From TrEMBL:
Name the record gives this protein: DAGKc domain-containing protein
UniProt GO molecular function: ATP-dependent diacylglycerol kinase activity
Every DAGKc domain range: 16-146
InterPro entries found in the cross-reference section: ATP-NAD_kinase_N, Diacylglycerol_kinase_cat_dom, Lipid_Phosphate_FormReg, NAD/diacylglycerol_kinase_sf
Family as reported in the entry's similarity comment: Belongs to the diacylglycerol/lipid kinase family.
Taxon lineage: Bacteria, Bacillati, Actinomycetota, Thermoleophilia, Solirubrobacterales
Organism: uncultured Solirubrobacteraceae bacterium
Record SMART domains: DAGKc
């Protein structure tokens, strides 16, 4: 990669400024291929200087983003799914180089939370236009890995493990494959012998079988429907929120799912679910010597004996095209 000039300033609204961008394209993302990468590069090159690189292995986007920040690029454009965006963010947290996500995956949770169009061409047009905003977004951390919108310990992480073993089916069936794996894990493993964990906060200590933390306004999406576990201020609130699943019983499955998908009644109103009003400093430990499966932004990061959560308010600079800042920006 060639040398670049300094980064854009916080709150900058663009104009005639020509930015130096590194485009990271994940060729394995569900809606990204060589033709898509060329179209995106062409669209961005009309106003900005763009270097395009394809990711080649797990963790590659972290390495490339970290190098781009060291070389002074204005922003890293992450073209892929939420896993690609997560890796790019992990290379950019705390640096002057901004993250510019584009919707190149199946769900595109982070892009939705930033108010970006789900259509890739429209999102490229925004980023390649005259106007842009640079804002500081919060990022959560579990152990040594940052996450942009959500992280889970237990049931959903186990489902992610299984989904990742079959990337072709994942790409084809998306949310339906994940839902089927989640149901399979719940009925096959968690109902009979769930991983036992202890959740410790500054105020309490209690048992659980799954912990789900959200940094954004929703935990994830199922199709167009947001799944909100706990009302939360979103990417710019300065805190994390989440829930702990106290038990894994078949009788709880339907009512908890109904609450999560309908939003008519809060998930935390069900007796099997405990609200975790703050996630900063929360620690989850194994109680039965089995390692805990952990996922960040839908990306499996393996099994660990404990999960330590923290939040870094405003630690990630985010570049978003358009005349309006992202939803929820207060600083």
């Amino acid at each position: 990669m060639s040398q670049a000039t300094g980064a854009v300033a916080d709150g900058d609204r663009g104009g005639s400024q020509r930015l130096r961008l590194l485009l990271l394209a994940n060729p394995h993302a569900s809606t990204t291929d060589d033709a898509v990468q060329r179209r995106v590069t062409t669209a961005l090159c009309r106003r900005h200087a763009v270097e395009a690189v394809r990711t080649g292995h797990k963790g590659h986007a972290i390495e490339l983003s970290r190098a781009a920040a060291a070389e002074g690029f204005d922003a890293v454009v992450a073209l892929g799914g939420d896993g690609t965006i997560n890796e790019a963010a992990n290379g950019l947290v705390g640096t002057r180089t901004a993250l510019a996500p584009l919707p190149g995956g199946a769900t595109n949770v982070y892009c939705r939370m930033l108010g970006l169009p789900s259509d890739l061409a429209a999102a490229c047009a925004m980023l390649g236009g005259r106007e842009h905003h640079v804002v500081r977004a919060d990022v959560g951390r579990v152990n040594d890995r940052w996450f942009t919108f959500a992280a889970g310990v237990g049931l959903d992480a186990s489902a992610v493990e299984r989904v990742d073993r079959r990337p072709r089916i994942k790409a084809r069936w998306g949310k339906w494959f994940f839902a089927s794996m989640g149901l399979s894990v719940f009925l096959g493993d968690y109902v009979t012998d769930p991983v036992r964990m202890e959740v410790e906060t500054a105020e309490s200590r209690h048992e659980a079988v799954t912990v789900l933390m959200q940094n954004g306004s929703a935990y994830t999406y199922f199709g167009e429907r947001p799944i909100v576990l706990l009302p939360h201020g979103g990417l710019f609130s300065g805190d994390l929120g989440g829930v702990a699943l106290r038990r894994a019983k078949v009788r709880d499955l339907a009512p908890v799912l109904w609450r999560a998908l309908s939003a008519r009644r809060p998930v935390t109103g069900h007796p099997a679910v405990r609200a975790l009003e703050t996630g900063d400093g929360l620690v989850v430990r194994t109680r039965d010597e089995r390692l805990l499966p952990i996922q960040v932004d839908g990306d499996n990061i393996g099994r660990h004996s404990e999960a330590r959560f923290a939040v870094a308010p405003g630690a990630l600079r985010v570049l978003r095209g358009g005349t309006q800042p992202p939803p929820g920006v207060t600083r």
